[in-house]
What does this fold into?
Amino acid sequence: MGIVVQKYGGTSVAGVERIKVVAERIAKSAAEGNDMVVVVSAMGKATDELVKLANEISTVPHAREMDMLLSAGERISMALLSMALNEMGHDAVSFTGSQAGIMTDASHTKARIVEVRAHRIEKALAAGRIVIVAGFQGVSSEKDITTLGRGGSDTTAVALAAALNAEVCEIYTDVTGVYTADPRIIPNARKLNEVTYEEMLEMAASGAGVLSLRSVEFARTHGVVIHCRSSFTDQTGTVIKEEVEQVEKALVTAVSQDTSEAMIRVDGVPDRPGVAARIFSDIAKERINVDMIVQNISHDGKTDLTFTMPKEDLIRSGDAIRRIVADIGAEGFSADSDIAKLSLIGAGMKTDPGVAAEMFSALAEAGINIEMISTSSIRISCVVRSMDINRAVTIIHEHFGLAGEPSMASVGQP
Ligand code: ADP
Ligand code: ASP
Ligand code: MG
It folds into this structure.
């Protein structure tokens, strides 16, 4: 037996009773002879509540202080879980991200892990202890506490699994695995037994929040096999790895949706070489994560440029966008938050050129207007009105034959 890394999400540790159930599960795995390293999220909606508190004090909270605040959520759950294990007679010890050796860069609220110095964990394991680690946080070279972006506990777990050369990285959540669509929205979504890193990356990047994007990137780079499963049942979940065995190659694998982005339209952009380069390099300097970009055909030497970016960055970056627009001599800009992105993902579409046309036709038949389109070799994404998104996902999921029986996703309390 070797090292097992487990991660429990917010719903799985939402209250004292749940924490005790999680402690039982960890104890069972330890009794099988595994060295246990357990990463926890903050209890229930604790992180959302902390964000709300910060926003009541400041519209744009100082990023360093935000990290100090948000990292507190995971410290509470790690200590309680460790106490629950101690109470059961196990020798458990909890570590903050910093104590666990999670070294990050200095970009507060979305820091990247640059190194894992796991000696303290290794020492505790060698002494026969169960190690509990606060997810979602680390420490910068300036010795400031950082957080890894929302959903970042998944990344902590995968990074530890890679550093410790763990047998497996189990991500316990409130659904029984990765589905063909979000089972909370599509009740007959089907559970996928195996998904490749490539497809999971596209899913995570296009809104399937069951695993954070960074965690999948990390897993792929370091070859960490993820088992995503429910903390409410013993059922096998979904395994995410390099290659999957499939009797028949499916054309498409999943549909996902993203309502977290806003669309920015810059009007009257002077159409000359270098303008797009200038706008987007200035935007990148402001740490605004641009997703889709469309530039219209120009008229009279001017063009329109439309792009999408996270809604949560809008308030912080309004002034910067205004300045960039003025600097390049554009006429102005407008922001539209009532949009959503629908994505269809599948490695099978690499060799089938008809999938995009079929997707657009199905949306047209349902009277759903497509406002922007972007593609990769295994993904097609369309921006639609946010009020149409659930209907659009249902139609596309059905159209491509992804539906199964009404799912037993075992969705825990939201
Ligand atoms: P945790 O707190 O355990 O990290 P999350 O809320 O981050 O849990 O992720 C689990 C949620 O992801 C599910 O409750 C589900 O609504 C959502 N989800 C979105 N897309 C999918 C998908 N394709 N398959 C499974 N769950 C999905
Ligand atoms: N608690 C953090 C969040 O809600 C990190 C996580 O749960 O993964 O985003
Ligand atoms: Mg999560």
